[in-house]
């Protein structure tokens, strides 16, 4: 009888995301590996949850040995053949020589890196949470040197998702970083609906009826206690053009006229989440920048700024 009670308690804790981590979904497997350089590897993994092959690229040390992993998520429009972190920032050079796997999923346009309730006519069968939290980590740890000490971060949509995934799977991550991210689903709801619909998908297919229980179950602000004990980082600019707007880039006008107002809205959300965390007695490091738009130059800066905190939390 005692054994049955203990088993029931362990199962309940696992279902709540507070106990032992779940096993990998059956059948997740590596189908191809391409060594792009001595410190960058492309891994192609069959995901049973999504019923297709997903590419993940890993930045890693040139040598062997076990090391922590930093799962780094893209934004609303991710790269097609590789993560935009490697094409729009100095991330590959920045992590060179650091004892960490930087795990970069490829794809997932407007997915919020979550499990969609319904198959969408535009996006198909999105099951990103299952892939990122159940299928992928055992492969990273079992075949690519991961030691089970993990952090997760991302920019904009990916930053929202990093906080959502950490709140829903608190056993898995020791640190969470969001760059120009709004980890308050209720506050970011209009922007989320617009971003999904703009790319031809049905927002109701993601978490069910808009504003319903499925949405609340993916709101870090409502699950903030699950983030207690983790190293937490958020950053936001003010929306005012800054030094990166002095750089002559093709997207300069977009950064100023679109990225400025977007970052202003992000700032309000970041400040609200900051106040909520501190009100609950949960330490959080928030980088409030006096200038800065919703653009890559500032996300690169924030990645650099957050790294010492993330590295300390995972032992990198």
TrEMBL record:
GO molecular function annotation: acyltransferase activity, transferring groups other than amino-acyl groups
Pfam families: Esterase
SUPFAM superfamilies in the cross-refs: alpha/beta-Hydrolases
Signal peptide span: 1-25
The entry's keywords: Signal
Claim: Signal is one of the keywords in the record: yes
Protein's UniProt name: Esterase family protein
Annotated organism of origin: Antrihabitans stalactiti
Organism classification: Bacteria, Bacillati, Actinomycetota, Actinomycetes, Mycobacteriales
